[in-house]
Specification:
mainly alpha
Length: 132
């Protein structure tokens, strides 16, 4: 019996399909209980490690954000303290204008000293919030 070119192709195609189906059937074979148990344990271990890593990353992110918020709050508190001190200084200076001579000068000196003290306290409070 003589085979033509298309007959050979058909035979090769049939053999190829049989090999492919056999290979696919091998891929879907059931694993032994020991293999399944080992695979499940490995998957659980990977999942546990991934969750732990994710929690650590989240904690670091939150910590970083908290530090940033703390720094922003400290800066705002400092700014408010300085602004309050400057406002109180202006009021004190205006009150001093009602005095004359040495009393006015002494009043203004006291107001200036109070402003400098308030600024120094605000600066110290801000510095205390910064890491060394």
């Amino acid at each position: 019996m003589t085979t033509t070119g298309s007959g050979r192709f058909s035979s090769v195609l049939t053999i190829g399909m049989v090999v492919a189906l056999t290979a696919l059937a091998g891929c879907n074979r059931a694993e032994s209980p020991e293999e399944v148990s080992a695979d499940v344990a490995a998957a659980r271990q990977d999942a546990t490690e991934n969750v732990a890593d994710a929690r650590e990353d989240a904690a670091q992110d939150v910590s970083g954000e908290a530090a940033s918020l703390n720094e922003t709050a400290a800066d705002a508190t400092h700014e408010v303290a300085i602004t309050r001190a400057e406002g109180e200084h202006k009021v004190a200076i205006e009150k001093c204008e009602g005095l004359s001579g040495d009393m006015q000068a002494a009043c203004k000196d006291t107001a200036d000293a109070a402003l400098e003290m308030a600024k120094a306290n605000a600066d110290s409070a801000l510095a205390a919030t910064r890491p060394q």
